[in-house]
User: Which sequence fits this backbone?
């Protein structure tokens, strides 16, 4: 026998057993209606549970994305200070986060699909329960127990099948959310721990601390360079300061530095010549 | 005939499509017996697609038992085996 037919029969057999057991099928109607209302409540709770899980994942995604952007910013900062090692560290942490973000996005889509399915199932069930109630009252008012037996057959197996199906769907959704809970907890821990520093930035992570230390050092350096430029002859000082601000100027800069180093060898301009090696050293590290 | 896709709802499918559906159903049964998850998945996907495109959704407030019932789209081999329960794979 076909799989599809067997599965339909299995669902129907369940309904028939319940109906056969009852002395008065009209009581079965009331009992079934109670069960339908209970199931309806359960499905709605299921929808709410899935929505809660989905929202939690959305918050985690926001947190992780914030972290990722922050790390990218730190990497840029580190690079601008010629600290490739630090930039590398920030980017490698970022890449770890990206993987988590991809995973979470998949889970999010998964839950969203589950939520939609359950919402539709709940709407269907509600419409059917409503329709069943009307039919039940009509049958109770107009038919004897014996007549009711034949009258309710279809409606009863129909609603019973719907209930079995919706019941299984809720179960599946619950299993899925339970599976995600565990992984979700792990992400929360990760976000809370120092591994992926605090989103609020209330605590400084090691990269930030290092960057700030360097920033204060480099403030001193640039201030020094600026003062030297003010004191020394203009043409040589300008490229030295701009060297950190962009690669687009590199060719022009090189030319300028070369001309600067040429007079230096003649020994006529001692001040700018001490500036020139610093510039070369900076470019070499990049 | 009325066909239910588990977790999705019922469709009214014209009886003329029965042969087509039965063929796919036979392929699913084979996949189940062989334990071939991949064949099972692809045939199930095709079968569900057929029902969705050939059928008209049954009205929400209509209460009617199904003639045929199909597993939900993500169902695994084990899940279907479990649903078929004690009857096992060899029909009685």
Assistant:
């Amino acid at each position: 026998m076909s799989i599809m037919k067997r599965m339909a029969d299995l669902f129907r057999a369940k309904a028939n057993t319940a109906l056969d057991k009852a002395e008065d099928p009209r009581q079965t109607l009331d009992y079934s209606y109670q069960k339908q209302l209970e199931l309806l409540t359960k499905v709605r709770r299921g929808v709410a549970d899935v929505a809660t899980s989905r929202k939690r994942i959305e918050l985690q995604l926001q947190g992780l994305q914030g972290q990722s952007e922050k790390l990218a910013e730190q990497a840029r900062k580190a690079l601008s200070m010629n600290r490739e090692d630090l930039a590398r560290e920030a980017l490698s942490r970022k890449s770890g986060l990206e993987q988590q973000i991809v995973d979470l996005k998949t889970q999010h889509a998964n839950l969203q699909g589950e939520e939609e399915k359950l919402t539709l199932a709940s709407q269907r069930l509600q419409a059917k329960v409503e329709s069943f109630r009307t039919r039940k009252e009509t049958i109770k008012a107009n038919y004897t127990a014996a007549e009711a037996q034949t009258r309710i057959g279809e409606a009863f197996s129909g609603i019973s099948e719907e209930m079995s199906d919706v019941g299984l769907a809720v179960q599946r959704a619950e299993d899925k959310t339970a599976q995600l809970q565990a992984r979700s907890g792990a992400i929360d821990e990760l976000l809370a721990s120092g591994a992926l520093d605090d989103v609020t930035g209330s605590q400084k992570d090691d990269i930030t601390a290092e960057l700030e230390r360097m920033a204060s050092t480099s403030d001193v350096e640039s201030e020094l360079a600026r003062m030297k430029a003010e004191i020394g002859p203009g043409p040589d000082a300008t490229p030295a300061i701009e060297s950190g601000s962009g690669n687009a100027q590199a060719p022009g800069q090189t030319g300028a530095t070369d001309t600067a180093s040429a007079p230096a060898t003649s020994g006529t301009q001692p001040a700018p010549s001490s500036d020139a090696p610093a510039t070369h050293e900076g470019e070499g590290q990049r | 005939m009325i066909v239910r896709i588990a977790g999705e709802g019922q469709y009214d499918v014209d009886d003329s499509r029965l042969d087509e559906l039965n063929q796919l159903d036979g392929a699913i049964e084979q996949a189940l017996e062989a334990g071939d998850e991949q064949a099972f998945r692809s045939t199930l996907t095709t079968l569900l697609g057929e029902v969705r495109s050939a059928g008209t959704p049954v009205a929400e407030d209509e209460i009617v038992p199904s003639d045929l019932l199909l597993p939900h789209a993500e169902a695994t081999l084990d899940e279907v085996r479990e649903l078929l329960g004690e009857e096992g794979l060899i029909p009685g």
